[in-house]
Task: inverse folding
């Protein structure tokens, strides 16, 4: 527009030289200063439209078609200004006028641009009051019916404080008479009126003598762009599925809350994870899962209310920020309410769905003063809540961080252990109950740390599953076990544990085939042990995996039966060759009154009906061998026949006596005992004596200060509780000590109610 303005000025200067002054020249003098887009409004009395000094200059004459009347000068528009559109049209469009000059044509373009384009013009007097404003903007700034022209510019517009150049206001530039460019401004809106946004530029104006006359400038409408920008920002900070705040907005909100917080003003962070959500996705589909997440979001909003900001981080993980709240009792109650709200059944497409929720809580500033630390600690608390059985909340504690750091160090060491050869296999015998011959070994991975020494599998296997190392470790175990078992006698099998993560990998059958082929081990000699947890997400892929493994010819064993998945339906289709009874059912089964023997019998009956073998795990006492054999188990595994041993020791054991196993260890089972020192009265053949109880269990006691002459298998009565005699029989007596077996089991809990005066000292 600058070139067009110059052209208009050049041509109209030529008209002036030819004698054309009057109102046409007044217009030229204005447009020469303002010449930019669109429709313009002049305030009545503006100096640019004052009558020229020479009245004759305004008289109509030939060759000067523009007159005061024809230009419409003095005609006010509806906003109190003067319209120049008619001026431009008459100047270049009358039938009497000659063809328009370049300047006249440019003036028409300017008027059209101001009328229909996005730009506009403005001008102030030396006091900062608007003397000119494009009509379309003037209409937007009318307040209470009063026109915008004549009002101070700073009363109508203000700079966006968030803009890059927002630190300097319009008032600053107007007072300092400095140029500004593309300032983002918005209207100082009246109540209930929507703000408009513009980009605005301006420069100071001076007359021929250098006197400041005001500001002159241009602008363009930014409202649509700002609204679009706001919507893009909203979408960028919102979760597209639930409409909740997304991870980025939650991070910004947490940073802001922590920046405003003090030692006296806490900020709390709740991290939520849905329990059993993956099962919903796997069984009912992702569409149902998405619908469930939407309902969860609505319940969360209702449960939290106005007190906090709720967001979804992704998947089934949510977050709640509670500014200004650090009281643990209040937060605990809120967490319980959230868990209860999310645990009620959901009804989606005719299905009733039940899930749960676990929550970890961290409170600033005690648990962290920055967002990264607070989120990490809330995540550790959530990890603890899930480890404690899910459906609960846990607050962060410092020991959680120490435990996490220990797990991280363990993970780093474990990554190197495989490469450095720190892992090795130990083999525990599996013995037939029929002839006590070794039928196989279970391969158990062991880790000898160069600094920590032996690390328990219960400690490092879960870490391997969490950090993704379990598949590489599992492959090493499988290949090593097959190679070492290949040198054993032909009928001896080797059992290898397969984690649920390995079982879910479609490449497992190919890996098994490769390990067998490389070792030269017949498939029938390899037994894969699979836990019940693989059935938690039973799908068509699980059935396909079973078929593929059985197609190879390997045996399948169901490990730790009775401790995991509660349904027995999978036994109808899963092609297991063996059920391994968990040691929790075996331990104590030989003790009178224990119900474990009945459970073992039920499992054996089920396995026999399905044509499966059974192995009783964790057998440690010799009298348990006879019981397990009597109950019908086909195999025994446990310390009673040997602890896990290296491969060469296993090979040597097979070479001794044709692989015959030999039981060792305690011969009889006994109840757990409490060591103590207390006096008690004992009644023997009508004679009362004082003895000391050394240890006590539900089935008997060891005493000292006893007269061995009384002999064995003698009936006695001992006062375990004040004035209450318990019948017993002497089973052994030696060196002033004796072992008593109670006629009936004694309830150990009754000792807790005993009078303290009767107990001298409890030592364990």
Result:
């Amino acid at each position: 527009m600058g070139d067009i303005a110059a052209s208009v000025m050049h041509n109209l200067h030529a008209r002036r030289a030819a004698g054309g002054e009057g109102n046409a020249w007044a217009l030229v003098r204005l447009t020469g200063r303002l010449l930019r887009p669109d429709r313009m409004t002049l305030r009545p009395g503006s100096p640019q439209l004052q009558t020229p000094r020479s009245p004759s200059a305004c008289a109509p004459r030939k060759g000067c078609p523009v007159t005061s009347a024809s230009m419409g000068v003095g005609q006010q528009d509806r906003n109190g200004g003067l319209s120049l559109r008619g001026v431009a049209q008459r100047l270049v469009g009358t039938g009497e006028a000659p063809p328009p000059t370049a300047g006249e044509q440019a003036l028409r373009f300017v008027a059209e641009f101001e009328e229909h384009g996005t730009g506009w013009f403005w001008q102030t007097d030396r006091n900062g009051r608007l003397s000119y404003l494009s009509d379309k903007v003037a209409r937007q700034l009318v307040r209470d019916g009063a026109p915008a022209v004549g009002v101070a510019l700073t009363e109508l517009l203000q700079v966006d404080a968030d803009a890059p150049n927002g630190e300097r206001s319009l008032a600053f530039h107007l007072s300092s008479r400095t140029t500004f460019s593309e300032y983002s401004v918005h209207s100082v809106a009246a109540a209930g009126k929507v703000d408009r946004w513009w980009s605005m530029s301006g420069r100071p104006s001076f007359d021929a003598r250098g006197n400041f006359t005001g500001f002159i400038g241009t602008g363009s409408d930014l409202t649509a762009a700002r609204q679009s920008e706001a919507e893009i920002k909203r979408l960028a900070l919102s979760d597209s599925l639930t409409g909740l705040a997304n991870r980025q907005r939650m991070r910004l909100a947490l940073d802001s809350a922590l920046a405003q917080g003090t030692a006296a003003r806490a900020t709390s962070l709740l991290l939520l994870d849905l329990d059993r959500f993956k099962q919903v996705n796997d069984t009912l589909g992702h569409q149902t899962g998405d619908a469930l997440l939407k309902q969860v979001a609505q319940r969360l909003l209702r449960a939290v209310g106005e007190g906090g900001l709720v967001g979804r981080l992704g998947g089934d993980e949510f977050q709640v920020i509670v500014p200004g709240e650090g009281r643990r009792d209040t937060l605990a109650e809120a967490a319980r309410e959230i868990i209860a709200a999310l645990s009620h059944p959901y009804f989606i497409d005719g299905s009733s769905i039940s899930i749960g929720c676990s929550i970890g809580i961290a409170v600033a500033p005690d648990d962290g003063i920055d967002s990264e630390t607070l989120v990490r600690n809330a995540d550790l608390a959530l990890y603890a809540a899930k480890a404690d059985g899910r459906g609960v909340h846990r607050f962060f504690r410092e020991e959680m961080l120490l435990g996490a750091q220990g797990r991280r160090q363990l993970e780093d060491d474990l990554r190197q252990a495989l490469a450095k050869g720190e892992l090795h296999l130990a083999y525990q015998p599996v013995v037939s109950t029929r002839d006590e011959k070794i039928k196989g070994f279970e391969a158990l991975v062991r880790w000898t740390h160069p600094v920590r020494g032996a690390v328990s599998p219960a400690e490092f296997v879960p870490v391997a599953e969490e950090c993704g190392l379990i598949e590489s470790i599992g492959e090493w175990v499988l290949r090593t076990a097959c190679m070492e078992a290949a040198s054993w006698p032909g009928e001896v099998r080797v059992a290898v544990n397969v984690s649920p993560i390995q079982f879910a990998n479609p490449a497992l059958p190919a890996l098994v085939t490769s390990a067998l082929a490389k070792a030269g081990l017949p498939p029938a000699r390899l037994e894969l042990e699979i836990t019940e947890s693989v059935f938690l997400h039973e799908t068509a892929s699980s059935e396909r995996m079973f078929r593929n493994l059985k197609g190879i010819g390997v045996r399948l064993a169901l490990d730790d039966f009775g401790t995991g998945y509660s349904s027995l339906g999978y036994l109808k289709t899963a092609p297991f060759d063996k059920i391994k009874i968990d040691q929790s059912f075996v331990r104590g089964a030989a003790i009178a009154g224990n119900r474990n023997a009945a459970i073992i019998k039920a499992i054996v009956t089920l396995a026999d009906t399905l044509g499966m073998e059974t192995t009783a795990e964790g057998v440690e006492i010799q009298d348990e061998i006879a019981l397990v054999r009597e109950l019908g188990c086909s195999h025994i595994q446990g310390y009673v026949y040997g602890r896990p041993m290296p491969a060469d020791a296993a090979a040597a054991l097979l070479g001794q006596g044709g692989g015959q196993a030999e039981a060792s260890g305690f011969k009889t089972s006994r109840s757990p005992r409490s060591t103590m020192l207390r006096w008690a009265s004992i009644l023997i053949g009508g004679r009362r004596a004082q003895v000391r109880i050394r240890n006590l269990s539900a089935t008997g006691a060891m005493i000292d200060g006893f007269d061995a002459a009384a002999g064995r298998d003698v009936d006695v009565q001992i006062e375990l509780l004040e004035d209450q005699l318990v019948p017993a029989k002497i089973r052994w007596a030696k060196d002033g000590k004796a072992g008593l077996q109670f006629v009936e089991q004694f309830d150990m809990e009754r000792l807790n109610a005993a009078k303290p005066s009767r107990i001298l000292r409890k030592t364990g």
Q: What stands out?
A: The radius of gyration is 46 Å.
